[in-house]
Write a structure and sequence with these properties.
Elements lengths: L3 E9 L3 H19 L2 E6 L4 H7 L5 H7 L4 E6 L9 H13 L4 E7 L17 E7 L9 E4 L7 E4 L5 H18 L4 E6 L7 H16 L4 E6 H10 L6 E4 L1 H14 L7 E5 L5 E5 L16 H13 L3 H17 L13 H13 L1
Helix pairs in contact: 1-9, 1-10, 1-11, 5-6, 7-8, 9-10, 10-11
Bound molecules: 3-isopropylmalic acid and manganese (II) ion.
Length: about 350
């Protein structure tokens, strides 16, 4: 039976509102086909609100967001706001406080999309990165001493608890099992230097793997080597799991191999709570309001949201809409070079997804 969902929408900054509008357009089309009811509540968190009121994310907002079935986010980042303020105050705070401990980032090359990887096609680039999303260098633990003196010391600490590592690895093993493609989970770490943090990751990886997931093949890569193989032999990968910092870095590399930020989407997932779906490119301020930004990443995030809500048929429709528009209409993924406007891309995907 098709469901009914309350979705919180945070369009955010820059081109965020434009791409989110296209995502909602496509969601509307597939919801109608599948008999799904979607109710949206929009929140104006972002740079404009901060500049106007000084407020980043009101304390009540997080509790408010907890009540929804999912959160759909556009982009955070404003040229007139110092980097870090909005990112930490909205994006990271939501991830942490809603305990969205998984950041799921598929790396999938669709047909008719150009990849910078030589001689690689859709059959070679199709894996998923499970990025831990609450710990690591992101916790903000650290500080300065003797700031602004020649002796200044800056410290930022990599932190992981066994609890965090364990729940992330369990999710990654379960995800690999459910995906059921190559049944291979690769841990990306740095055990040759980060001999505490990634030692913990590696021990727990093999403990859980041997005990509960014997049918899943376990691989280990140091992060530097993983970057090399993501370029040279991406077809080796099925699911990769890693900490927050490495996950941030390697998913940008992954994104460019699938055609860039115009297509890359991610889910900030709390399997027991409220999850948030977003295109992973930024707010692209210079394209704001021009109707030229590529909305496919946001549409793809909407697809992930449907998948997460268990609406697989709706998700499959969105994906086929994306595949069709890439095959039939889009010249280039770059903003302003698509051969279609932002709203036209949304229109076409909505149409193809309904067929
Ligand atoms: C991402 C982004 C964020 C991160 C920034 C904007 C805080 O780069 O979602 O990958 O580092 O997680
Ligand atoms: Mn990033």
């Amino acid at each position: 039976m098709a469901g009914s969902y309350n979705i919180a929408v945070i369009p955010g900054d820059g081109t965020g509102p434009e791409v989110v509008a296209e995502g909602i357009k496509v969601l509307g089309a597939v919801a109608q086909c599948e008999g799904i009811t979607l109710d949206y509540t929009t929140f104006d968190f972002g740079g404009e609100r901060y500049l106007r009121t000084g407020e980043i994310l009101p304390d009540s907002a997080v509790d408010e967001l907890r009540k929804f079935d999912a959160i759909y986010l556009g982009a955070i980042g404003h040229p007139e706001v110092k980097p870090g303020i909005l990112e930490k105050g909205i994006l990271l705070r939501t991830r942490f406080e809603l305990d969205q401990y998984i950041n799921l980032r598929p790396v999938k090359l669709y047909p008719n999309v150009e990849t910078p990887l030589k001689d690689k096609g859709p059959e070679h680039i199709d894996y998923v990165v499970v990025r831990e999303n609450t710990g690591d260098l992101y916790t903000g633990a650290g500080g300065f001493t003797m700031k602004d003196t020649p002796h200044e010391v800056a410290i930022q600490t990599m932190i992981y608890s066994r609890f965090q590592v364990e729940r992330c690895l369990k999710y990654a093993f379960e995800y690999t099992r459910k995906r059921n493609k190559r049944n291979t989970l690769g841990l990306v770490g740095k055990t040759n230097v980060l001999t505490y943090v990634y030692d913990l990751w590696e021990r727990v990886f093999h403990e859980i793997g041997a005990h509960d997931y014997a049918e899943i093949k376990r691989e280990y890569y140091n992060v530097d080597a993983a970057c090399m193989w993501m370029v040279k032999s991406p077809e080796w990968f099925d699911v990769l799991v890693t900490g927050n910092m490495f996950g941030d870095i390697i998913t940008d590399l992954g994104a460019i191999t699938q055609g860039g930020m115009g297509l890359a989407a991610g889910g900030n997932i709390n399997p027991e709570g409220v999850s948030m779906f977003e295109p992973i490119g930024g707010s692209a301020p210079k394209y704001t309001g021009k109707n030229v930004i590529n909305p496919l990443a946001a549409i793809s995030a909407a697809q992930m949201m449907m998948e997460f809500l268990g609406e697989d048929a709706a998700a499959a429709r969105i994906e086929s809409g994306i595949v069709e528009v890439l095959a039939r209409d889009i010249k280039s993924l770059a903003a302003g070079q698509m051969g279609l406007s932002t709203t036209e891309v949304g229109d076409r995907v909505a149409q193809y997804a309904s067929e």
